[in-house]
Amino acid sequence: MISDLYDVIHRRRDVRAQFTGEPLAAGVLDRVLAAAHAAPSVGLSQPWDFVVIGDRGVREAFHRHVQHERETFAATLDAEDADRFSRIKIDGVLESSLSIVVTYDPDRGSPAVLGRHAIADAGLYSVCLAIQNLWLSATAEHLGVGWVSFYREPFLQRLLGIPAGIRPVAWLCLGPVSHLQAVPDLERHGWRRRRPLQAAVHHDRWSSRRR
Questions:
Q1: Are 165 and 37 in contact (CB under 8 A)?
Q2: From CA 171, how far away is CA 33, in angstroms rounded?
Q3: Cβ(143)–Cβ(70) under 8 Å?
């Protein structure tokens, strides 16, 4: 039903602290990855790959890197923001059942990627569509997803043996959760407020408004 689709969209959350660590039910991972792989892509290039990570040692190595990057970011904040940030959990790398790294291959479909000649990043946008498909299908399966962005791409390339020229776009934590928060974490902790829809909609031309 259409209402079910809208429900999934609005229930989706970036999960950090609610992972249970329980294994995924049989067939669920295949369905979620199939949904991601069904995303539209510029020139039908399908420039994504999915690295499924269950190895504890790999996840621990990545988690240490994430914590270092957390400290690097925290050092740039003033005292008030640093205090607020200290209460925000930024990843569920060790608590989730597994992780999926989604990558982008800009050479997939080259040299003539139909539709990309004027917009170089169209392939990267395609990867983001695959990530969104993955996220929504996981939500429909009553799973949580957490996108970890506190990492340096060269580190992750070395850690996972990703070939040169292929970009790791997202490290996604995935697994069953105890619940999904009604209000996103960053709103609950007072980091940012959600923009109302009317502030984001323009008609015919760009119009000035408060952010």
A1: no
A2: 14
A3: no
Distance of CA 97 to the CA centre of its chain: 16
pLDDT of residue 46: 97
Q: 155-197 pLDDT, tens per residue?
A: 999 999 999 999 999 999 999 999 998 888 888 888 889 899 9
Residue reference for tokens 């580190």: 155
- pLDDT tens column, 78-124: 999 999 999 999 999 999 999 999 999 999 998 999 999 999 999 99
What does the alpha-carbon distance between residue 30 and residue 19 come to, in Å, rounded to a whole number?
20
May I ask the CATH class of domain 8-187?
Answer: alpha beta
Task: For residue 180, give both structure tokens.
Answer: 């999904």
Please give the sequence-ordered ranges of beta strands (E in DSSP) within 135-205, or none if there are none. Answer: 143-148, 167-176
pTM: 0.93
Determine whether 147 is exposed, middle or buried from the number of CB atoms within 10 Å of its CB (0-12, 13-18, 19+). Answer: middle
How far apart are the C-alpha atoms of 171 and 169, rounded to whole Å?
7
Q: Of all residues in the chain, what percent are helix, strand and coil, respectively (each to 5)?
A: 40, 15, 45
Instruction: Parse the chain into domains and list their residue ranges.
Output: 8-187
Q: Which residues contact 101 (CB under 8 A, 6 or more apart)?
A: 50, 51, 53, 156, 160, 168, 170, 171, 172
**25: which 2 tokens?**
């039910």
The two three-digit tokens of residue 81, written as one number: 């923001």
